[in-house]
């Protein structure tokens, strides 16, 4: 599948290249938790003191976008696109991600069900790159006869 982020508009943020990898070593100044804590704040002492929440241990979408920038700097466009989709999915509850994963299995969903997932991603979560991927899956599944009938989905 080839649903990708638009490449004419680069990600906003710093200009990164191979020398910045890994970010946790070479550009720790750019990394924050989803709650805004710097990576350096994630210490065992902070955990013991109760200063770290489960949300602090999740990856921030900004970190995934930085990883996408790094991947593109070494011509790994597909990996960069995967990071962009992952960044979008950080806004989607885990249960919905799992349901979408199951719905995207061949013959698990009708075309209409897949389009509804894409519309939900785009409308509710502003996940346009993920929505495009689900729409593309619906088209490919239709061409290859991999859709469920409306009654089955």
Written description of the protein model:
By secondary structure, the chain is mainly alpha-helical. It has 2 domains: 15-90, no CATH class; 91-153, Hypothetical Protein Yqey, Chain: A, domain1 (Orthogonal Bundle), CATH 1.10.1510.20. The chain contains 7 helices and no strands. It is globular and about 55 Å long. The model is unreliable at 4-11 (pLDDT under 50).
Notable features of this structure?
153 residues; mainly alpha; Hypothetical Protein Yqey, Chain: A, domain1; 2 domains
User: Structural class per helix/strand content?
Assistant: mainly alpha
Q: What is the N-to-C succession of helices and strands?
A: HHHHHHH
Rg result: 18 Å
Uncertain spans: 4-11
Strand content: under 5%
Q: How would the global form be characterised?
A: globular
Strands, count: 0
Task: Note the gap between the termini.
Answer: 22 Å
Q: What's the arrangement of secondary structure elements?
A:
Elements lengths: L22 H4 L17 H5 L12 H13 L3 H13 L4 H10 L7 H15 L2 H16 L10
Helix pairs in contact: 3-4, 6-7
Summed up, what is this model?
The chain is an all-alpha fold and 153 residues long. The protein contains seven helices and no strands.
């Amino acid at each position: 599948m080839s649903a990708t982020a638009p490449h004419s508009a680069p990600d906003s943020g710093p200009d990164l290249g191979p020398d910045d990898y890994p970010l946790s070593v070479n550009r720790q100044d750019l990394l924050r938790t989803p709650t805004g804590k710097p990576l350096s704040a994630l210490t065992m002492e902070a955990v013991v003191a109760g200063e770290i929440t489960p949300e602090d241990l999740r990856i921030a979408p900004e970190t995934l976008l930085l990883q996408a920038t790094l991947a593109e700097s070494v011509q790994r466009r597909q990996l960069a696109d995967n990071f962009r989709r992952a960044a979008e999915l950080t806004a989607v509850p885990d249960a919905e991600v799992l349901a979408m994963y199951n719905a995207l299995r061949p013959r698990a969903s009708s075309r209409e069900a897949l389009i509804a997932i894409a519309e939900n991603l785009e409308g509710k979560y502003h996940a346009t790159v993920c929505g495009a991927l689900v729409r593309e899956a619906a088209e490919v599944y239709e061409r290859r006869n991999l859709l469920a009938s409306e009654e089955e989905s």
